[in-house]
Structure prediction request, 129 residues.
Amino acid sequence: MKVFLCLVALLFVPSLFANDDLDLEANMKNTGLAFKNSVEATQLPEFNTAIDEFITLVKRSKSANFHKAAEQSLQGLDKVIAKAELAKKLANEQGLDAAKGPLKAIDGLRKQYHKLHEPPGFWELLFGK
Prediction:
C-alpha cells in the first residue's frame, strides 16, 4: 500500500513543477462569464463579487503568450482593467446604474481588441490584406 501511495505521489510531483501555462481560451470564457454576471447583477455585493472575479481573470490573461499584436493586446487588457476598476468605484459610490457606462466601454474594447486575434477570412487568405 505504501508503495502504491508513493507511486501515485510521484505521478503528481512533476505537475507541481511544470510550467503553469495559461489556457487563454478557457480563461477568456470564464472572463466573459464574470463580465456577464457583473452586467446582470442586481445587488451591489453580487456586482462586486463578479467584477472582482472579472478583474482577476483579466489580470491573469496578461500572462498569456500572445503570438501577434502582443503589445497592443496588453495595452487593451490594461484599458479593460482600468474601466472595470472605474465601474466598481462608481457602483460603490453612486449605485449600479453609474457602472453601466464603463461596462459598455469594456464591451467596446473587447470587440476592438478581439479583431487583432481573429483568423484571416477567406478573401484575406486569397488576396492578402
In short: The helical segments are 2-17, 24-40, 44-61, 70-94, 100-114, 122-127. The two ends are 63 Å apart (CA to CA). The CA atoms of residues 13 and 54 lie 31 Å apart.
